[in-house]
Amino acid sequence: MADPALLRLAGVHTHIGRYHILHGVDLALGEGRLMMLLGRNGAGKTTTLRTVMGLWRASAGEIRFAGSALTALDPPAIARLGIAYVPETMGLFAGLSVRENLLLGTGPGGLAASRIEEVLTLFPVLREKWDLPAGALSGGQKQMLAIGRAMVETRRMLVVDEPSKGLAPGVIDQLIAALAALKAAGTTILLVEQNFAMAAALGDDVAVMDDGRIVHVGTMAALAADTALQVRLLGLHLGSHQ
Amino acid sequence: MRAGDTAPILAVPLLLLAALPAMGFADWLTLSASGLAMGMLLFLMASGLTLIFGLMDVLNFTHGAFVGFGAFIAASVWARLPGLVAAPGLAANLLALAAAGGAAALVCGGLGLAFERVVIRRVYGAHLRQILITVGAMIVAEQMSVVIWGPDALTLAKPASLASSFIVAGGAVEKFRLVAAALGLAAFAALRLVLARTRIGLVVRAGVEDREMVEALGYRVRRLFVFVFAVGTALAGLGGAMWAVYAGTVTAGLGGELTVLLFTVVVIGGLGSVSGSFLGALLVGLITNYVGFLAPKLALLANVALMAGVLLWRPRGLLPLVRT
User: Which terminal Cβ of chain A has fewer Cβ within 10 Å, N or C?
Assistant: First the structure.
């Protein structure tokens, strides 16, 4: 029987140098769903995303995406399956213009006018900065460009690491709108986020990590409604953490 | 290149002006023309080195060996075309030059492909091992050229129609140097165009900034690097061929001697920066000629002093790359 999950991690271990970071991560993400990956700093969230992208090799376990075993592939091959990755550092090319950064997110066909319009409608400020180097943008504008680059081409899955980090509330609202639009278009999204308000606004599902393992899986709505669970899993509750 | 980066570009005209009071106008003109021509040739050889370092963080001390091979291959072709070399017509001379340069570029590009596959691929990410193995390969390459072409210097006659000089205001500008300068300039323009206007150039520029992210976007940087390595070694070979004709003599030690100059050029320019290397090459060419004339004993020291001065002013080179 075909796996109902688009992305499935089973018993994934990752070592970085001599450090054992992931201790058997099990995770299933359904097609078209938006999963928030939560957890305190150092819990292994970024490592999980990087392992999915092949940027760090899993030392044990299996990662499958739409039937392909990702553990056997290198990052370019993984990306070509239709996965866009926005790292915590945003991964922009500071010396290249906004246009060139977007162009790198496209396939051989280059920038399609309709997709550019879509990105520029969501992030109008990028239009004014079109020919400026990405290094000259503000933090919020950079994050918009990073998300924009991930959406100029149709992707099956988007993997985003802490997009709200260090951004003003107005910018975060724009990012939430962009991610919601992507989700509405059917893109599956795996999102690491520390901003609980953003997580609660977007997430269908939630997985909480601690010490390199998944310690809780459920719906975002259930976690958002259960203060005791939030305190137990995250050491916080919704009202206190923005 | 970013706005506000105009100061390094002014370094070349400033150096030209600064040298004028130190000598007569005729000498200045001759030395400046010859320095700029030498700079263009150095750029031809160094452009590959800077891209190879910028894109894959590979310190390739064997780069000079490709210059040396290019020079010897050109000398061999030269010796087989005495008719074309000695012919009084410009077209015949240029044909000989194209044959020598083309053969050098082709063979060196091919050798570069093989070298990347056999040696460089095994030492990605390990600078110390890169230095050890590429310095070792440099020694092997030098000895190989002694085995193939013999221990004695080979001499090349200047192409008949390009051996003479234009006399401008009392200063002599050798015609061949103009051809060399034109070739260097053309290579610079072509590289800039490919880097600025093509998809492959865009991916190279992005890869120089952040290789990992380029791979996460679905591009195979390694495959691209093999291509850049081959183009870089082909340019080194072409530069070597032009150098052989420019200097009129080729020895087995040529590659090793030029390696120091080429690294100086690349470091002055900012590692990985093609435009920076171009400026660095012009400065090194000019300084070498000026100091060689004014105080020959200081010639070797001059380029080291230039490098120290530039790095004190701009620690990451004249036109450093933006790294994210």
Answer: N
- Residue range A5-82+155-240 forms a domain whose CATH class is alpha beta
| Residue B258 domain flag | yes
Contact B216 A55 (CB under 8 A): yes
User: Cα–chain-centroid distance for residue B116?
Assistant: 19
How many Cβ atoms are within 10 Å of B115's Cβ, its own excluded? 22
Task: Specify the amino acid at residue B13.
Answer: P
N residues, chain A: 242
Strand A34-38, strand A188-192: pairing: parallel
Distinct helix (H) and strand (E) counts, chain A: 10, 10
Whether A55 and chain B come into contact, CB under 8 Å, resolves to: yes
Helices (H), B270-298: 274-294
Q: How do the domains of chain A map onto residue ranges?
A: 5-82+155-240, 89-154
- Whether A184 shows a pLDDT value over 70: the answer reads yes
Q: Do A76 and B220 touch (CB under 8 A)?
A: yes
Rounded Cα–Cα distance for residues B58 and B116 (Å): 11
What would the pLDDT profile of A104-134 be if each residue is shown by its tens digit?
999 877 788 888 898 999 899 999 999 999 9
B323: which chain A residues are within 8 Å (Cβ-Cβ)? 94
How is B103-123 classified by DSSP, letter by letter?
A: HHHHHHHHHHHHHHHHTGGGG
Contacts of B219 in chain A (CB under 8 A): 76, 104
Interchain proximity B209–A95, CB inside 8 Å: yes
**Hey, are the CB atoms on A96 and B212 less than 8 Å from each other?**
no
Residue that is written with structure tokens 């020291």 in the block: B301
Would you call A100 an interface residue with chain B, using a CB distance cutoff of 8 Å? yes
The phi, psi pair for A36, rounded to 5°, reads -95, 135
For residue A94, the distance in angstroms to the closest alpha carbon of chain B comes to 6
Average pLDDT score, chain A? 90
